[in-house]
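Researcher: Batch entry, complex prediction.
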Amino acid sequence: MKVLKNRYRQFLYSCFLSIATITLAQAELPLMPYPRSIEVTDGKYYLDQSFQINLGEVMTNRLNEESSLFIKQLVEQTGLFLNYRQVNSAVDVADLTIKVDRFGIVKMGEDESYQLTVNESGIALNATTDIGASRGLMTLLQLIDGDENGYYVPHVAIKDAPRFQWRGLMLDVARHYLPLETLYRNIDAMAAVKLNVLHLHLSDDQGFRFESKLFPDLNIKGTDGNYYTQGELKDLIAYADQRGIMIIPEIDVPGHATAILTAFPEFGSKDTTYVLERFAGIFDPTLDPTNEEVYAFLDKLFGEIIEVFPAPYFHIGGDENLGKHWDQNADIQAFMRSKGLETNHELQSYFNLRLQRILNKYDRRMMGWEEIQTNELEESAVIHSWRGAWEGAEPRASLYHAASEGYETILSNGYYLDLIFTAEDSYRVDPAPSSADISDEERSKILGGEVCMWSELVVPQTIDSRLWPRAAAIAERFWSPEAIKDVDDMYARMEVISLWLENFGLKHISSPNRILRKLAAGHDTAPLERLLALVEPMKGYTRNPGGTMYNTFSPYTKWADAATADALGARRLNNQIECYLNGKMGCGQIKDDLEELADNHGQVQLIIQDSPSLREIEQLSANTSKVAVLAIEAMNFMETNAKPNPKWFAEAKELLTAASQQGGRTELQIVTSITNLVAALEGEVK
Amino acid sequence: MKVLKNRYRQFLYSCFLSIATITLAQAELPLMPYPRSIEVTDGKYYLDQSFQINLGEVMTNRLNEESSLFIKQLVEQTGLFLNYRQVNSAVDVADLTIKVDRFGIVKMGEDESYQLTVNESGIALNATTDIGASRGLMTLLQLIDGDENGYYVPHVAIKDAPRFQWRGLMLDVARHYLPLETLYRNIDAMAAVKLNVLHLHLSDDQGFRFESKLFPDLNIKGTDGNYYTQGELKDLIAYADQRGIMIIPEIDVPGHATAILTAFPEFGSKDTTYVLERFAGIFDPTLDPTNEEVYAFLDKLFGEIIEVFPAPYFHIGGDENLGKHWDQNADIQAFMRSKGLETNHELQSYFNLRLQRILNKYDRRMMGWEEIQTNELEESAVIHSWRGAWEGAEPRASLYHAASEGYETILSNGYYLDLIFTAEDSYRVDPAPSSADISDEERSKILGGEVCMWSELVVPQTIDSRLWPRAAAIAERFWSPEAIKDVDDMYARMEVISLWLENFGLKHISSPNRILRKLAAGHDTAPLERLLALVEPMKGYTRNPGGTMYNTFSPYTKWADAATADALGARRLNNQIECYLNGKMGCGQIKDDLEELADNHGQVQLIIQDSPSLREIEQLSANTSKVAVLAIEAMNFMETNAKPNPKWFAEAKELLTAASQQGGRTELQIVTSITNLVAALEGEVK
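Model: Structure tokens for the complex:
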């Protein structure tokens, strides 16, 4: 980690910091989420193969398992040979002493705080609960560094506790099924960055992934054979519980229900046959809220699911029901008139209230996407705020509305990682900034937030690089104090943490590399890597126009699937250019980098000849090399105070426009900074 | 693939071929295993997104599933958007027509042949069985290439069938448990290279991995919690069957039985308590063959296992029982005297014959390591030949002995991939070369061979790079005609196939890369990659002296775990030096490569400062750069006809001796060729 860590330290003094807003004393260690309070002092506590743990007097299963897992991680991270794996018994003289007061319960509001002190006498981890201790162990792993004398932990005194109690990750396992090992490794990664709720979106138009023994057709007809057995889910839930993570189920109704309706078309609002959906979008199949058998069915199904999921929350989805089939169904229209329900939203509200009664019976709190909120909804419901600019809504409006009406609520708008916005974009979103005009009472209703990963365009092989390391930045937003918000500092730490996260089995680095090796067709991948570092997949819903360019069978082994949401190469180059424009010297080897880029397309072209799949980036690659040449020319003009003619500017603008076009469903991220460079030159000329 | 494929074609004319023995017309396409007969003609059949399959008149479940899997692979390999995944129905005009006569049964001797014809009218795959068709589909995937016009299959006429019927892979899931996903992806890789037997070594001193419902203590006490449930195994077996692969269980008795004895110490030959083994080696705990309850127990246990594994073979292990506890047990000695059993081997033979009776009852053929062969053994037994030079035995002696006594037999000596010999080493081993002095009858008893992967030093994260791509080369030995044996040709094809195997989810390339990223501690990994390409892990049993340097808890994330058995960088450099010594020109950029190497240590040192785990390779790295300098000096002397003084030679030899020492449990593979270079110089000087 040293180089990245050094790079991180150096960045405090780097030129582009001068233009960043520094909002707090800079973090001194690459921890993420950054602790609430940390004092770093001189000194290092060295680790060697004699490393021992003392677990104190209060011993719990979780503490035992988590400390053993810590040992495994420590061994793999450092390569130290510790001749044990299971921390079974207390030892007198220990390097690490962990003391807890009691076992923790995986629930909202549980005490997750911890204190971690490292000094010359060793490492002391104290926590009220074993969950808090488990959080502290992850911080400890992040603290381990190496120097010429070995591995060590710097002397620190950390006091830490979460800002928000609900720090979730939603995985859409319906559209593309995620095998269990994908879930397990992501649970480990969640624990590594102190996330504590895994929300499984178990059903949608493309699949029903919970094994129903009562209604096996939900799996037989409602999937291509991929679903989780109840036993598998119980094991998963137990493992997550050990890691201090609650798993909550979502069965999305009454819309997003095609998979259910393939098994039970009689519960639909239209007399038709239903076929499992392969595309992405908002579809019409909807449960019939006027059919009593629908409630009987859902009662039994929910009961079966609740037997498996002990969490006190049950997510009923409830989003994106346009009600077209309701409009077309005369019986439903008659029902609405008879009940005095004037709109589809009122009809859905009727449906939701019926479900709330069922869930109350099972002692579960209903949770749903923001559309479920109506006046009649009982206050025990939890409102999941998701809509924003893309949906023509004010971000967080539904969050604050829910809080103002007395509902507990969590935020996901801004945290939809499948939309491929940058870590910075999500990091800047705060569920309840101090500047928000809300009462303390309302503020207390905002439990936190959830990262969302909808899976229209991801498969098991690519999901890690879509989730990580961005989810770590959002985890920091949920856990760390509001004041921890410097973006450049976050990026510098995120690079360190991204490498560290590989220790938990994540494929977020290896998977894009594998795709590049395939695309390179036996060539050296370096030219592709150079270009890939400058592009990001098309954002929002633009990559998959109309939801029909891709379907569940499409290849997800293409250029855009190797690209990630944060083009760090572009970020560096943009910072260099910004630095150059501010001070014109000491901005890294900017021209060397641009020269290399200028030559890159020739090498990419040689690869494309042998790799038809890459034909789609030929223009993108050519334009990238061309704008690199343009940037060099602009700098040369500026440095020599020479004046390009108007034709040069006209061609430059034409080229920059061309370079902003997508290629291989990705977009070049250095166009703006080079446009700024050209504009600056134009300003000088004028 | 193009560059590697081109490199492969060019290698036909490359200088080092001049010194290779060409035993057959060179393979023209990078297929592995190479087909029995292939005619390549001019012409390419291009593939696009309209690609369709016609499955002919005889439809089987396997054909349906395998052709769907083919579509998935085709889509991922080419990035073509085919809007279907399940090949359900015949289409009139198809690009690929697959015709089979009948479904196949996964058993020895089943027809696995196929004919694959590609011409301007399309691709025709014909086979007697759907298993043969499935083999042909893998060849078809290997044939796909790309050019400026798109993806295509070259026009070919292939007639193919296996040479040996038993083409196995043994995985030791006892010493280090392998999660199911590891097994699944390796089954896919096995199918990709036409292996057809997966032998699971389910029990050993370190663990008992079969879920026994009759004897749950085997799992509770005999593992750390990791074992396969019966349901998981049934699913795995069904999947393997679809892929034309038979899974056979091994329960190793009477030795290697510590895990069993942790649960049932009363079945041991010594009155003691047994503790699960953590180290590697041959241990004393042994079942008591004089105890009738042992047979009653094994009868029930085998019965339970046989319910899960339908294969007609049951492997009882039977290896490496030294019988120390038998010698020490007076009752056992008395038993032997009463039965007239003079040696421990005779006692074990008594034990084996009892087991054979049990297995006969269950209609299973007993299989065991070569030690089980005795005069009394029924001819239905299958002898697994494994001992060789490391065990003071003549390689294949037990194979031929078994055949001569009328037993069917398979070979694993030479195919122990955990011993980290090169692909070449294994590739040169033929179970039944035409030169062998054996009768046709004996030859017919040699069913084939098995790759073995013992897991003392591998974990799920590293096993793929220990197995692949070497197992592909051995698969070729088992499948292809004896005459396909040119080593350089094999390596050239293996590089192409290695990349292709990543399409099946193997981590054999990504896993070493991940370890290097960890070891590089934030630095660029290039200097480490350069060195890693020149080293191989210590071979045979030398890496883990006495079986005690490592245990099941050790870190397998170190330098040696990133290194692989074939240092391809060293192989290239050695070929260049050999070429240089033969002709002295046109041997690649040999001096540039050596200069780069000479500078490498300085960069490695910068990394080591921050990565204590790499301290162990500091000397290795330094010596590598020094011998590179030495090689350059030697060449310069030769080219200028200058004569170094004796001191130079003395220092050179000292350095070469030092450079042959292990570092980080790996060995530098360029010492011999540079020694040859120095010797050649010395020869010139004399």
